[in-house]
Automatic annotation (TrEMBL):
Keyword Magnesium: no
One Gene Ontology cellular component: cytoplasm
Protein name per UniProt: FAD dependent oxidoreductase
Any GO MF annotation of the entry: oxidoreductase activity
Positions in coiled-coil regions: none
Organism: Psychrobacter cryohalolentis (strain ATCC BAA-1226 / DSM 17306 / VKM B-2378 / K5)
Keywords per UniProt: Oxidoreductase
A Pfam family assignment: DAO
Annotated FAD dependent oxidoreductase domain residues: 7-395
InterPro entries from the UniProt entry: FAD-dep_OxRdtase, FAD/NAD-bd_sf
């Protein structure tokens, strides 16, 4: 099957690929969107639904190191490393450690800040343009603490963020409970972040964008697994589960599955690994909370959605092939219950596991190398940065000036 009457083939129909497909198709680019399964069914559907513009620090910092032994030994803790996967994880983990040093840490932080500063406005404009407002809510979010020893850290964190323009307000226990009456009074304080949002129905957003893309003339090929890619003088040859294709230009947006194809298309070995994330959906709890609530001490988030309360979080390093350990999804219920006054209704709950693509420097790869466009590796911030990434790819595609300095996200940093 040769499809060459397209300007661009996008490999990966998650929120990154889909937002870019809609953005480019609307500007007259003929786009074919290829997905190994169905559009938007991976991490894009299972994430916490939080437009997390307040998360402007790398995924790991030096203060975490002292907790690692405990995390390794606690099977129900927020971080788990499968010891069988450790040898494969080590090269990536070593680079992650190197990036915790003050100089790279600060550089990465500035680059995350730069993307996130533009993310909410980008989402609001996008939601407005494509009739997504019903599901894209901007009512802020909360970060709570329950350990007395964490209160000072929370206050320091809040003022550090305010200093760099990430607006937040410190709430006393009383002010917190007034804002979210369902919370237990063991929550001692919180930061309220006004410039964050959440998506109340990820499926509806994905379906709407999918529909719009097709309406605009975009072409979707589902269950099309790209097995190999070669970049030749006469085009880019894709070997797929639906036969061979020749593309004039390609964009790689396959999330955690991007590593091998990135190497084939560019020759660069990106230090990318996967953080397996879990969620538990409680369908009878859609009205419990008003806005997303994260616990700093318990390291997880609760997001109210139209079809229930989503408990999400936990990081597991076990690669792309190990079976899901759904006990990790169900343990989120044990984390959530002590934070809330009334017992949670966990009947008909649905558990999920998916892959977050994390580079060793916590930054996505957003770049153009001749005929190859790259947009992957957004770690926990794929949903947050999806629209801003799509705009950056459009700038590359049409050779326009970038509003965000593109250098920190370029592939050359790994050469």
């Amino acid at each position: 099957m040769t499809i060459s009457n397209f300007d661009l083939h996008i490999i990966g129909g998650g929120i990154i690929g889909l937002a870019t497909a809609v953005t480019l198709q609307a500007r007259g680019v003929k786009v074919a969107l290829l997905d190994a399964n169905e559009v938007g069914q991976g991490a894009s559907l299972g994430n916490a639904g939080h437009i997390a513009t307040e998360q402007v620090f790398p995924i790991a910092d030096a203060s975490m190191l002292r907790h690692v032994p405990a995390m390794l030994l606690n099977p129900t803790g927020p971080l788990r490393i499968d010891w069988r996967y450790l040898p494969r994880l080590m090269p990536w983990a070593m680079q992650l450690l190197m990036n915790m040093r003050p100089e790279p840490f600060e550089r990465i932080h500035q680059a995350l800040l730069s993307l996130n500063k533009n993310s909410l406005q980008a989402w609001q404009g996008f939601a407005n343009q494509w009739q997504l407002e019903e599901w894209v809510q901007v009512k802020g979010s909360l970060l709570t603490v329950e350990k007395t020893s964490s209160v000072d850290f929370l206050i320091t964190h809040g003022s550090r963020l305010n200093d760099i323009g990430v607006a937040n307000e410190l709430l006393t226990r009383e002010a917190l409970l007034e804002r979210e009456p369902a919370l237990q009074d063991n929550q001692l304080a919180a930061l309220f972040f006004p410039n964050t949002g959440h998506i109340t129905n990820l499926k509806a957003v994905i379906n709407q964008l999918h529909h719009i893309f097709r309406q605009l003339g975009g072409h979707v090929i589902e269950h099309c697994h790209v097995l190999a890619a070669t970049n030749d003088t006469d085009g880019i040859h894709l070997t797929t589960s639906q036969g061979d294709m020749t593309a004039s230009k390609v964009m790689l947006a396959a999330g955690a599955h991007s590593k091998a194809l990135a190497k084939q298309l560019t020759g660069v070995n990106v230090p990318l690994d996967t953080e397996r994330g879990y969620h538990l959906m409680l369908p009878h709890e859609s009205t419990r909370l008003q806005i997303p609530v994260s616990s700093m001490d318990r390291r997880f988030i609760m997001t109210p959605m139209q079809d229930g309360l989503r408990l999400a979080g936990t990081v597991e390093y076990a690669g792309l092939d190990a079976p899901a350990n759904m006990q990790r999804a169900h343990m989120l219920l044990q984390q959530a219950q002590p934070i809330l006054k009334a017992p949670l209704d966990a009947s008909d709950s649905v558990s999920w596991m998916g892959f977050r693509p994390s580079t060793a420097d916590s930054l996505p790869v957003i770049d153009k190398i001749e005929r190859v466009f790259l947009s992957f590796g957004h770690q926990h911030l794929g949903l947050t940065q999806a629209v801003v990434s799509a705009q950056m790819i459009a700038n590359y595609y049409f050779d326009e000036d970038h509003t965000i300095d593109p250098k920190p996200y370029q592939l050359a940093r790994f050469k």
